[in-house]
Please model this.
Amino acid sequence: MKNLSHLLEEMGNSNTATVTIGCIKGGITKLLPNAPDINIGITGSGDVTISENIDDSVSVSRLVQIPPEASAMALKRNGSFAGVLLFPGMHQDDPNSYFLNDELLGIEMGTEISNLSQTIDIHYRSVDKNGRIASCRSWDGKGKSMTCITDGCQTKETNNSIICQCSHLTFFAILMSPPPGNISASDFTSLTYITSIGCGLSMFFLMVALFMHFLIRKGKASQATKILMNLFAAMFTLNLSFLVNESIAELGNFGTCVAVAAVMHYTMLATCSWFFIEALHLYLNLWKTPTDKHYMAKICATGWVTPAVVVIPLLALGQYDYLVIYTDDGNSAKMCWIADAVVHQGVNVGYYAVVFIFTVVVFIMTVRQIVLLKPAAGKSQHNSSTKANSFSIFGLFVLLGITWGFAFFSHGPLLIASYYLFTILNSFQGFFLFIYYVNSSKNRSPTGGISSTATSDTVTQ
Model:
């Protein structure tokens, strides 16, 4: 697109020219001071018309209208032309969606044009949507894969026409998506708010717990407490990288996006690894299995090195990229993550499935121990013991990361319910674990063994 400026010399005294580069067609016009709207129309057969006024009587199927504000901004920034190119044969990675006419329109003026108050209007006439949702998308030309977003563009539909009103220059297309299915815009907004609040609250309490450990209780920490602090550190970094992810993606810096995606993926796998280690340590405590002097070094290596073994190859293979999440109203959210859905499912679901199976087995064994233990005194102590045991069971459920298992139910009629359960329990997980940590610190078994009120507290002792 930027090489269009070289055509100006070949145009001589002519102010407009058509462009044909293989199957790519378009038009270019010189910019003149105080020029009115620039209209570049393209017919269904690829013929290009450039004029100050193209009305409905002209049979063009695509019409690009560039306002005077854009021309004035380009001239002020040493731009000298306005060019539009039509790129055919462009396909969407998602097999359920496609670009209208399988094409992209590129608009270039020799300089960066953005934040226009008078939008650049791209008209598509006589559009047959076939029951699909049309939404205007833009692509900045960056990244290994073509990630089109809705930023800076609005979609307007009138009769059989679609108008993309955009405040910047880049590549544009109309994405034709299937009718609403997975998640509505209202659910997406609600889940986003819940996640932001939950992750923020969890980060605060995880930071408080880490502060209490390193500045107050570090010298008294047991193996179980050290393991818990490693889990807190992994979870804190995961929440932080998740909260900044969308903002980093919006910056458009590909290298930074890849780095954030890799960090978030690493901390997510590290969190899963520490769930596994928590379950392993609890199992060893329950069966009083002796450990050697290098026990902590071994589990720390397992917890922090194993995720790196997964992330580094994915980084080397270029699997981290921009990812766009669409809602049923045509809007989207952009983030940095694994772009290939198959790789995401295979790596992350497979990794957590191994952790989930082991943690559930240990959880069932521990709950059985709690249920089999009888209170030693009367009814009042029995009620107190029941409350304490219920709290311990819920604490273990969160501590071992079993709440992440709701992701396995995100199908069919349980889809939306599982989204809400997963989001609420896991975004607030750090907050729940802080309460569990503080309560467990107050109810330690004097003998260090298993008691009816402290069975699961051995994991924080």
